[in-house]
Specification:
Blueprint (H helix, E strand, L loop, with lengths): L5 E9 L2 E10 L6 E11 L8 H4 L4 E4 L6 E4 L19 E6 L5 E9 L14 H18 L5 E2 L6 E2 L4 E3 L5 E3 L3 H8 L1
Length: 186
Amino acid sequence: MTELNHKDIWNGEYRNVKFEVVKWWLGNPDDGHVVWNYYIFIPVEQIPADFHKYFILEGEYKKLSPDGQAHLLYDYNGTSYISDLDWHGGITFYEKHQDGEGKVVGVKLGCDYAHYFDEARGYPYTLEYVFMETKATIDKLHQLIPSLKVSCRWNGIYYDKGDCEELPQGGYLAKENHEAWYKVRV
């Protein structure tokens, strides 16, 4: 093995949406090429039913070259909501997450900072900058889908925001779990 790639990963949650920021070094971290990406993770249960068709896409196998192997591709650039989010340079990544029996349980969406050759043109990005753009994408998601569901800190189930109370320490609690939550905390 003559060359290894390296990546650093930061993850978190913003406005009840999980995300990941990745900094890749292609080659040696001391002198290799740097590429940034960020991804958001949206469980199917968090997406209101009317919007499932925009997030749970049907793929199509296509050959990228006449002699090549067929690859499963998704038309995420032509899909409302996914492509309308505030991505850096547009969405460039779509992946379905499945449970052990093959049922789709969520989607991972993302973009990268390499398609515009930003770094080669002298744009040295920072974690703070990429995190700011990650939050802008999540803010746009909430703007486009104000009915996006929130997870209850008590049981992890997704509820309509109106059926929850916001906790002082952050996050949401379903009103139906109020008594149980505070009984344990006394």
